[in-house]
Design goal:
About 45% of the residues lie in helices and about 15% in strands. It is built from 17 helices and 14 strands.
Length: about 450
C-alpha cells in the first residue's frame, strides 16, 4: 500500500475510534490478565464476543482513569486495510505517536483485532511487546490464531484466555432477571431462575442471538457453524472432500456427550456411500476442536495405550448450536445437560476427562483446577425418577472415588437435590451453574 495513502487511512481509522463511544454490553465474568512484556491473547469460537471482551477491558481502563487517547483499537479486517503487509504494520505506532506525541512516555494500550490476517504478524507484535510503555491485546478468528500457533509464534511472550458463550450467570444479567445474583435464593428468585434456566437450556449463550425470534435464531446459529466449517476448516486446510467433513460434524451434533470413535464415524460414512480414511477423520475432529466448535474429552488414565484405544467424548461449544443443527426429531435431555455441565467447568477453568471404573462403568467427569489444586468427580443424571438408573450412576461415582481417592463428588440433575451417604451431593443444575454447592465438612 502506498505510504501516504496508508498513513492517511490509519489516521482516519484512529479518529473513528476516538470519536465513537464504546458499545454497551453485558459484562463478561472473565478475568483479563495483563502481564508486562507479554501480549494478552483472546481465543475462542467465532461470534462468542471476543472483540467485546476487548471493549470491556477498554472500559475498565477508562473507569480507572486512563485517557482514551492512551488506547488504540484497530480491526485489521476493515476493508480500508486490505493489502496491508508486515512492512506496513510499522506505521501503526508511528501514526499513533504522531497524533499523540505526549503519550510516548506513558503506558499505552494497543488492541489488535484479526491482525493474524497479515502474514508474519508475530514479528511485529513481538517488537511491540518489547517496546517500553506498551501493552498489547490480540483477538482473532480461531482459523488463524490457534492456541498452539500463538505459543510458537510468541515464544512465551503471550498470556492466553479462552472466551466461551455466555455463562448462565451472564445470561441472567443480560436478560435482566437480576442486576446481581443474590447469594441467598428466595422462592421468588428460585422461580425466576427456573424460568431463565428453561430458556438458557433452549437457546444457549451465543451473544448475538439472545434477543431474536426462534426461527431467525436457528438460521443464525446454523450460519455460525457453516462459517466455522468453511472458513476455519475447509479453506484453512484445503479440504477437497467437504462432504465427509460435514457428515462427520453432523454425527458429532447428533451424539453430544457420547463416546465416538473414529472407526464408528468411518463406518457411518461408508453407510452414506462416502469414503474417508481414519487419518482424515481424526484430522477433521482435531481441526473442528481447534476452531472451538467442539471439544474433545479423553479417558483419564496414566496409560497412554488406554487413552489411545478408548474413544473420546465430544461436547459442542453451546447447547443452542446443538439444537439448531440436529437432524433427529427427539432430543435426549441428558446429553444436553451433560454438555452444559462441561461448558460450565471450562468457564471455571477446570481441565476435564472422563473415567472408566474397573467394572466398565463410566463417570462423566473428573475435573481438575490447576490453580486451586481442586479435584472433583461429577456424574450427570437428568433426574432421579428411575431408581435403577440413578443407582447405577451413583455406584460408578463411588467406585471411581474409592479408586482415585477423590472426596468431592457430585451428581448434577435438572432439579433434584439431596445429600447421599458418604457426602455425595446431588445438585440441581442451577445451583451448579451458579456455584452454590455446599461445602461438606469431612
Amino acid at each position: 500500500m502506498e505510504t501516504t495513502l496508508l498513513k492517511n487511512t490509519l489516521r482516519e481509522l484512529f479518529s473513528d475510534f476516538y470519536e465513537t463511544d464504546l458499545p454497551d454490553m453485558t459484562r463478561r465474568q472473565i478475568a483479563i490478565p495483563e502481564v508486562s512484556g507479554c501480549a494478552t491473547v483472546v481465543l475462542g469460537m467465532r461470534r462468542t464476543g471476543k472483540t467485546f471482551l476487548l471493549y470491556q477491558r477498554m472500559k475498565d481502563l477508562l473507569a480507572s482513569g486512563v485517557a482514551k487517547d492512551r488506547m488504540l483499537h484497530v480491526n485489521f479486517e476493515d476493508d480500508r486495510l486490505l493489502g496491508m503487509t508486515l512492512e506496513d504494520l510499522r506505521y501503526v505506532p508511528d501514526v499513533y505517536y504522531q497524533m499523540f506525541p505526549e503519550n510516548r512516555d506513558k503506558l499505552c494500550y494497543f488492541f489488535f483485532d484479526e491482525i493474524q490476517n497479515i502474514e508474519h504478524w508475530e514479528s511485529f507484535v513481538r517488537r511491540m511487546v518489547d517496546t517500553p510503555n506498551v501493552q498489547v491485546y490480540l483477538s482473532g478468528s480461531s482459523a488463524k490464531l490457534l492456541s498452539r500457533e500463538v505459543a510458537t509464534a510468541m515464544r512465551g511472550r503471550s498470556v492466553e484466555i479462552e472466551n466461551f458463550p455466555l455463562s448462565f450467570e451472564e445470561f441472567l444479567i443480560h436478560h435482566g432477571y437480576f442486576e446481581a445474583i443474590p447469594r441467598n435464593i428466595s422462592s421468588t428468585s428460585r422461580s425466576k431462575l427456573q424460568n431463565a434456566l428453561e430458556k438458557y437450556f433452549t437457546i444457549g449463550g451465543m451473544p448475538a442471538v439472545q434477543n431474536v425470534p426462534d426461527t431467525l435464531r436457528a438460521s443464525m446459529l446454523q450460519g455460525y457453524v457453516n462459517t466455522v466449517i468453511y472458513r476455519d476448516v475447509i479453506d484453512r486446510h484445503g479440504i477437497a472432500n467437504s462432504q465427509a467433513l460435514k457428515f462427520t460434524m453432523q454425527m458429532v451434533f447428533n451424539n453430544p456427550a457420547r463416546q465416538l470413535s473414529v472407526r464408528k464415524i468411518v463406518d457411518y460414512l461408508k453407510s452414506q456411500h462416502l469414503t474417508s480414511s481414519r487419518e482424515y477423520i481424526a484430522d477433521y475432529l482435531d481441526w473442528l476442536s481447534d476452531a472451538y466448535l467442539l471439544h474433545k474429552v479423553g479417558l483419564h488414565s496414566e496409560s497412554a495405550m488406554k487413552r489411545r484405544v478408548n474413544p473420546d467424548k465430544y461436547y459442542l461449544n453451546d447447547v443452542g448450536l446443538v439444537r439448531s443443527m440436529r437432524i433427529k426429531h427427539a432430543l435426549d435431555q441428558g446429553p444436553l445437560l451433560e454438555n452444559m455441565v462441561y461448558l460450565q467447568l471450562r468457564h471455571q477453568g477446570f481441565q476435564v476427562e472422563y473415567v472408566n471404573t474397573s467394572d466398565g462403568s463410566e463417570v462423566d467427569f473428573i475435573a481438575f483446577h490447576p490453580a486451586q489444586n481442586d479435584y472433583r468427580l461429577i456424574q450427570v443424571c437428568f433426574d432421579m425418577s428411575d431408581p435403577r438408573t440413578f443407582g447405577r450412576e451413583v455406584s460408578a461415582l463411588r467406585k471411581a472415588a474409592d479408586s482415585l481417592g477423590i472426596r468431592d463428588r457430585y451428581v448434577i440433575t435438572w432439579d433434584d437435590e439431596t445429600l447421599l451417604q458418604g457426602g455425595i451431593q446431588v445438585l440441581p443444575i442451577w445451583k451448579f451453574l451458579l456455584d452454590r454447592a455446599e461445602k461438606i465438612e469431612r
